[in-house]
Amino acid sequence: MTDLDQMRAHMLTAIDAAAGLDALDAVRVEALGKQGRVTQMLKTLGAMSADQRQVEGPRIQGLRTAVADAIAARKETLERAALDARLASETLDMTLPADAPLTGTIHPVSQVMDELAEIFADLGFAVATGPEIEDDWHNFTALNIPESHPARAMHDTFYCEPQASTNGAARMLLRTHTSPVQIRTMLSQKPPIRIIAPGRTYRSDSDATHTPMFHQVEGLVIDKGITLGHLKWTLETFLKAFFERDDIALRLRPSYFPFTEPSAEVDVGYTIVKGKRVIGGSEGWMEVLGSGMVHRKVIAACGLDPDEWQGFAFGCGIDRLAMLKYGMDDLRPFFDGDIRWLKHYGFSALDVPTLSGGVGA
Ligand code: PHE
User: Fold this and answer.
1) pLDDT tens, 250-264?
2) Which of 115, 104, 111 lies closest to 344, judged by CA?
3) CA 259 to centroid of ligand 1, rounded, Å
4) Nearest atom in ligand 1 to 176's CA
5) Rounded to two decimals, what is the model's pTM?
6) On the CB side of 69, how many CA atoms lie within 13 Å of its CA?
């Protein structure tokens, strides 16, 4: 074994034995630093004859590369271990009781979700949920939005990195609407179905009235002999209960969604009171939700016979509902986590909405 081989073996052992990043750096300085042993050897090349240099040059350079590579690999291992240890130790148990006096409030979005559950429970609807990280099939394909459909582009979808293990075939995404819960419910439950599905949704969009994460509530009814009349009555009953007024005027406008046919956008009438829009009356119209009769293709994609089962669906922005009901005019502070905003707009944890006590809290 030559001196060089011995030195290489010695250094590689020291690198493997370095127990922490500091120890590893000490080995690096000793080998590759300005005064390091490998650096010193490289310096001897200048004094060699050309023939000798031809032989020794590549050997010493090879040693340098081997040592540098081994250090880089060991560094990565140590860093990963340090990160794993940190992740394992820095846990936060959200279920522990708070040790400070409670200063938080129920967020208006949570409040509105509770109100929706209460109102729809009274109409016989259960609450359904689905994952926020969805696959293409549930978010688009099963909803009659095939690969080439322009609606895919319209949704400004956030896609996840393709996973190597699946060859990029099952690229996951952040659901762009709550409509995939329609599919999941129809696949897992036998009709008749009556559900609402409130939850977070995501689109790459951001201004005073759009945030990349927002909330929707989906409604789905599947039964025999369901018509547009059932849809209109349900929405009217819901909005009257939600805004706690009887003079709610609805306007259904023909529209297009790939997963409903026919489709209707629903406007609710408002009146101007002291310069502010107040829901009720019909001085002006504001769009609040999208809806329609569930498309035959969607019913069939879920393994049901569309000649036997029909239904309606609707999707509604929850943040928007909260703004209209509780008078916020900017959406962005909803997600700032500012305790002053929460104190002003939030609700007491004891003000659980009930139909008898009022869903307005
Ligand atoms: N998913 C649609 C959207 O996000 C809303 C919708 C739901 C329309 C159900 C019709 C039926 O815009």
Assistant:
1) 999 999 999 999 999
2) 104
3) 8
4) 4
5) 0.73
6) 7
